Amino acid sequence: MTERNDLSNLALEALRVRATKVIPAQIRSCIQKLSEEQLWWRPNEESNSVGNLVLHVRGAVLHFLCRGVGGLEYERDRLGEFAAGSTMSKQELLEKFDEMIAKATRTFDVQGKDGHALILTRFQPGELVRSRESCNRFQRFSSSRHSNP
């Protein structure tokens, strides 16, 4: 059992470093090399700009990691991620991106507390349930539905 916990902790730490340090540094480096015009340029109306893709990554991390795993209050505006344009400066975009990284870092930090990661389960399609208490209720629910009379 300890070996599995060690492997789980190692995998969680590797994911944390990649999601909060490595990939953000690569994205930030690319953004900084672009002018404001290049950041929001689209080859055509059906395509997305680099800025839109950064907002999309931000929205996905806040929605799936910070909200779905960490319980952060967040309402995603997916259409807004793709509608944003040159009205947002590069500096504003980087500030939003950095805010997301900070929230993701806090989410991973909480997951490491007491050596336990929160487990996601589904009660009903589309309904994510978090916390050990919810998981225990789910296990009791599953056992009662699948036990022999």
What is shown here, in short?
With 149 residues, this protein is mostly helical. The protein has six helices and two strands; from the N terminus they run αααααββα. Helices cover 66% and strands 3% of the residues.
Number of domains: 2
Q: Tell me, rounded to a whole number, the average pLDDT.
A: 78
Strand order of the largest sheet: 1-2
How is the main sheet built? 2 strands, antiparallel
Cα end-to-end separation: 32 Å
Shape: elongated
Continuous helix count? 6
The percent range for helix content is 55-70%
Structural class: mainly alpha
Number of strands: 2
Instruction: Output the helix-strand order.
Output: HHHHHEEH
Radius of gyration: 19 Å
Strand content: under 5%
Low-confidence stretches: 129-149
Key terms for this structure?
single chain, 149 residues, mainly alpha, 2 domains, 6 helices, disordered C terminus
SSE map:
Layout lengths: L1 H32 L2 H5 L9 H18 L10 H6 L6 H22 L9 E2 L5 E2 L2 H15 L3
Antiparallel strand pairs: 1-2
Helix pairs in contact: 1-5, 3-5
